[in-house]
Write a structure and sequence with these properties.
The chain is of the alpha/beta class. It has one domain: 2,3-Dihydroxybiphenyl 1,2-Dioxygenase, domain 1. 17% of the residues lie in helices and 40% in strands. The chain has a four-stranded mixed sheet with strand order 1-4-3-2, covered by helices on one side. A four-stranded mixed sheet has the order 5-8-7-6, with helices on one face.
């Protein structure tokens, strides 16, 4: 077997609409699928959103709001990302800092979404 990428992962959230608004403001495309389920699409990947009281037939053993930690990649200069976050009153938890991404060095800032999930926004160095 050869795995070739990540299609999607799931975040369990308290308020799907608040989560959609937060990530849409960061540039995600909000998509609806299945029985009016919501997802956040970034390029060719997505994050499916499960409300904490969901009725999805198979979920993580202990789905918990705020237990996520992910890195979203941007082409926007980090200085512009910082400015946009501050304009929207999104607290920057850390950064900018140098990190190692999946394919090389990145410069990142960290924020938390409405559920407290840690969200790294990183830009690959030129």
């Amino acid at each position: 077997m050869k795995l070739t990428g990540i299609d999607h992962f799931v975040l369990t959230v308290e308020d799907v609409e608040a989560t959609c608004e937060f990530y849409e403001d960061l540039g995600a495309e909000i998509v609806t699928f299945g029985d009016d389920r919501k997802a956040l699409r970034f390029g060719e990947q997505k994050i499916n959103l499960h409300p904490v009281d969901n009725d999805v037939d198979i979920v993580a053993r202990e789905p918990t709001p705020g237990g996520g930690d992910c890195c979203l990649v941007t082409e926007t200069p980090i200085e512009d990302v910082e400015r946009r976050l501050r304009e929207r009153d999104v607290e920057i938890v850390m950064g900018p800092v140098e990190r190692t991404g999946a394919v090389g060095p990145i410069t990142s800032v960290y924020v938390r979404d409405p559920d407290g999930n840690l969200v790294e926004i990183g830009r690959y160095d030129d």
